[in-house]
Amino acid sequence: MPRYLDPAKVKSAMIRKGVWPISDWPGTGKAWLCVCMDCGSFVTPVHRNVMRPGASGCKPCGRRKAAEARRTPHHEAVKVMRAAGVEPLEAFPGVDVPWRCRCLSALCPGLWMGDPADIRPRLSDARLSKISACKYCARIAIRPERAVQQMIERGVKPLERYEKAGRPWRCECLTCGADDITPSYANVVLGGQGGCQHCGGRARVPERQAVAEMLAAGVQPLQDYPGVNERWRSRCLAENCPGPANRIVYPRLGWVRRGAQACKWCAGVVIDPLTAHDIMVNQAGLLPQVPYPGVREPWKCRCLHCQSIVSPTLGSVTGRGTRCSECGENGFQRSQPGLLYLVTHERMHAAKVGVCNLDTGRIEKHERRGWVRYALLSFTVGRQAELLEKQALAEWRSQGWDPVLDGERRYDGWTETVSLSVATADGLWQGILDLYALTRPRRTPSGARASIGR
Known about the structure:
By secondary structure, the protein is α+β, with helices and mostly antiparallel strands. The chain contains 15 helices and 18 strands. It is 30% helix and 15% strand.
């Protein structure tokens, strides 16, 4: 049976909670018509709910008081905004409400002719800002007057008000006078592109003019004009074109206007497989062993001089004069005696493995840069030293040991290094000797001699 409650005491308890009952008590679990003694609103609280610790008789007043308790004090909010580079100009409106401020930076991009920028950052945004709470200093907005000035400096005059960086902006070209161009601020100022499509050769022209431009570039169009930046099926008119018999190409008029050669065969961008084969044989002395893979892809070949198998690219042969890496005069000579070395660097706390031929000064060059010679392993053929170096590096990387940078700067040979915090120099060198013993199980680690110098 429910416990009896005195209605007078219940009413007194409700009054202490801030609500005045104006009807007879209906019971502890039913809504009771009351008047809030704070805001004057009619409310219908339930007695047993109101009597809970921390509960309020008027829900709107309870929410308001709870929000005020969570509200950031004005002085703390001002402190956060000042740390973010702005000074509030009005009372704190709330965490997620725009707050009118002024930028504290004397070099603020929002300043124009002495007129400060109107900025309204939120406190929540200021807490997360890494550069500044000012949208102009943070480079996420541009003042319209400054945007107009920057567009004029780049040769186009805006004819309407600035809205957004990526939105087309109707302008007039200050060079050719065209007023039907619509470049965007992002493309012209931020991207460094030309503002006028007529001056830049991007505007569509009559087909007769387009055909004349292509004929002047040495190709005959074979279909209707598709557009300035669309591929246009054509035939090369050059008598000595190295392309196939039909000499069909697909240049773009925009490329031709910017100085590109219309025929890819004449430009050397694409080479006939038979021509590519002749170049490798005649210029580099290399006999291809597989079909032509492309100008930038490694092409497996056999050197006609030393019979070694190498894989240069056709582009490196035609552009840099690359030949066989085994018998070339420059770089590491794999057929000559070589050294595998381990050097250490005290400041970077790193070790480095490398290979070189005899009397090349390679190790001395490292020593002038702060490296200290730790150990050497000599080989009668440099190719064996190079193989052992690759095996050592593969073992290091399989252990998760990354290369060591000099701060944030890369340097010569940095990919062949490892930190001495993961292994000692003794341990690294012993690992190299163990790898050598595995590859040469019946011989001692001296392809000839191993020496350690500390």
